[in-house]
Amino acid sequence: MMNLVKKIGNIKAYAENNTNSNQIITLINGGDIIAQEVYFTDDIQMAVNDLLSKTLDIFTEDYIFLCVPNAERLTENTYKSGRKDWFCRIDGTSYFQHYFRTEDEFIRDKNGLKIIDK
């Protein structure tokens, strides 16, 4: 039986315990399965975070602090690491989407309106 573990924006992460230490993690967007992988661990949260980072470029704030060099917190919802590395919080969750764009491409939308504060 699949159990809902996390909801990140439109994406729902489910875990199914096959046997001892054998978890099937599934990411679903609407009615579509976008990723599924088997993890041999008891740590379901670690498995979900790993699948999110590998398939969708989504990371936790802890990951940004520990593993992203020169990460600079610009606002409560935005981090920057280098000229083209941006991390933006997803819908008030503890997860951040990674964007690889220049500041000019990222800060303004197609109508020229400001998206985030520097």
Polypeptide structure, described:
The protein has 3 helices and 9 strands, in the order ββββαβαββββα. It has 118 residues and is an alpha+beta fold. The chain has a 5-stranded antiparallel beta sheet with strand order 5-9-8-7-6. A 4-stranded antiparallel beta sheet has the order 1-2-3-4, covered by helices on one side. A hairpin with a 2-residue loop joins strand 2 and strand 3. The longest helix is centred in the middle third of the chain and has 13 residues. The radius of gyration is 16 Å and the shape is elongated.
Tally of contiguous helical segments: 3
Mean pLDDT: 87
Q: Tell me the overall shape.
A: elongated
Strand order of the largest sheet: 5-9-8-7-6
Q: What string gives the helices and strands in order? A: EEEEHEHEEEEH
User: What does the main sheet amount to?
Assistant: 5 strands, antiparallel
User: Based on helices, strands and strand pairing, what is the structural class?
Assistant: alpha+beta
Share of residues in strands? 35-45%
Please tally the β strands and state the result: 9
Question: What is the CA-atom radius of gyration, in angstroms?
Answer: 16 Å
Terminal CA distance reads 45 Å
Low-confidence stretches: none
**Helix proportion of residues, in percent?**
10-25%
